[in-house]
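Quick one, T. Sequence first:
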Amino acid sequence: MTEAAATESTESRPADAGRRGSTAESAEERVDRWFARRPALALAALLPIGAVTPLFPVEVGVATFALGTLVVGMAHGAVDHLVPLRAAPGVSLRRSIAVVSVVYAVLGGAVVAAFFLAPVAAFVGFVALTWLHWGQGDVATLAIASVDHLPTSAERWLALVVRGGLPMGVPLLAHPEEYRLVAEWTVGLFLVDAGAAATAVDPLFTPAVRAAVGAGMAAATLASVGLGYRRVRGGGDGSNDGGARRDPAGWRRDVGELAVLWAWFLLAAPVFAIGVYFALWHALRHVGRLVLVDPEAASAASAGDAVGALARFGRDAAPLTLGGFLVVGAVGASVPAGVAAPGDLLAVSLVAIAAMTLPHVVVVAWLDRRQGVWRPGVGA
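Structure tokens:
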């Protein structure tokens, strides 16, 4: 695409989000409120429930994860085939579907093959990829909301490390037993010897690994919060704005969300915590982003019609959401160990989600580039 064409795609650029709708609430502001702010408040309200979930059987978490995946988790990536069409002028529907289909087939197949060949390495890779992607999603949400205390790519990458690491790293620190159980279930799908999974995942759960993850997450969080505070106090490095003071409201929002996420993943049982987070936080934020790149859904959002915007998204997502569940079924039918218990079902779902996550990350990374999410100064 030419630079001129990219400039014309104003509806898909987070950098413009805070500069529209000066007299009335813009589509970006409504979407941020519907799909990010209110769900964050809902997660905060669920903290007392999360705090008691370690007392429940892990099957409660498995059921919660399944429900969250069924309701919204699987759907949030089911419009990827339309993203190039809507975010880049000049891309035809046929080309959009063809390119994304190839990306999904090649990369998704590679992930499933990796689990068959090296299940422990594939599990670690899935955790790392999810860490990247969930951080990626939150940084994009902050950019769409014109949160301006992260004006450089380095600060946004640090925010990604923190935001993605909270759901992936903090449960390892707070609830290693259940985290390990999920790893054993997933790796065990691909091992003939049922007892080999426990031995295979041993190196991932040593005290040294947990301590390193905990210390790294604490240090990254403090660094991100501290750098943001320096920005809003007018102590920027001058590379973009001469050290100008920035709006502290975005920094306060960032800190508030980080506090909720730290508390949620420290207190709640991992499977339950991830199931709720996936549906209520990550998936909804991405749905909101896709609403903004669809002209019809964005128009409904501008008019305050949340139901209309969601109906449009739901219509587009329905066919490939069903396809996602067919992938889960295909993985379940092919694993050597078979599927005989709720834990096996969760593990199969995770492998199928991993197969869909890698191509989804590629599509989202392309959208990030189109929208300038990682370009220094965007959102300033």
